[in-house]
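[Q] Does anyone have a clean structure-token version of this?
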Amino acid sequence: MNRTGLMVVTCALLIVVIGTGFAGRSAWAAAAPTPSDTNVARSESGAVPAISILTVGVVPFQSRDEQRAREVTDIVTADLSINPGIKLVERSRMDQVLGELGLSKAGVGDADTAQRVGYLAGANVLVWGRLFLIDKQAMLVGRVVGVETGRVFAEQVRGADTQDLLPMVDELASKIGDRIAKERAALVAPDVRDDIQANLNALAEPLKGKSFPKVAVIVEEQHLGGERFDPAAETEIMYWLAHLKIPLVDITSQRLQMRQWAKEYYLTTTFEIPQLIPEDVGVLIVGEAVSEPAGQYGTLYACRYRVEVRVLDRATGDVIAIARRTGAYADSSPVLAGKNAIQKAAAGIAYEIIPRLAGYVPKAAPERPAAAGSGASKEPEVPTPPPTNQPQATAPPPDSQTESAESE
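[A] Here you go.
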């Protein structure tokens, strides 16, 4: 082979090697782990792409055959664990929550209970179900509930032989995984701040002509590691109320006192009417928000956040609506990560709770004891004890008391 031919072959080999290297690097990049193992919301600057990973909790399946039920639960859990779009809640955490709620043996029987379990376990989606064994036939029913939205979806698989259960369980787990991916938008509340004006318009249309009570908002907010209070959630909810022209009362001047009241409300089981709020306020939106640092990934800072809000009838304390958001977020600084995370979460909460206010009529305040001089009977006056330097009157002898009573 002459020199020219050798050079051609050498160049060709180099191209192949370099191409293989780039292909390997691309494959590695595709398989590289994401910065966080939880949902990471998109920064408004577009720095972090959205990751479609949902946190899923699996509740033990129920059946008359407890051994088979445990096997079904284990297989469904194992099958879902290899789904790239799912992060499972640890089994120990699920057992702890079920034990706290007294559901270890009874299991989950309805969507409301499932939402509560998922809420405490930190799951976006909860999976539970039941195995029916009838006349040597088996039927598996699996249910999927969105913890935030309350939407429920069901899948089922039937088999003719109870001994051939494994393929049925695998099929059910596959259907559940596909359903979670397909119905993600219905299972998880939308990130409405990505196009806030479009969502404001979409929300305003069905609310046209509806009446609303006067509303006040107080959200106790804390950024762990931060030095000052930053009302991002409170401001965001007020922003949505104002743009939808819902009567809003600003209680900023009483913020310090109301923040303390909000803390006490979440710590106690009783409700007392906040006297600082104007009397014409019919509905009070009270909540808590917290963020904490979750590490640094290159030039991005991550945080975890949680926001929960209750809509209360001001007079009675009745809960009109409740919503919450949890997750992770990343941005170019710790301050922006915490603030923007809570802001986006509060936007989703506002989008969810505002329709519950349409047409709501606040209840009458409970009656209070009548004031003195209003015609009500007065309490008897307590006699003033005699001075200590004067002898006190002694009781009459028993005979005279008897005679006085008989004479009457």
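[Q] Thanks! Anything notable?
[A] The first strand starts at residue 40 and ends at 41.
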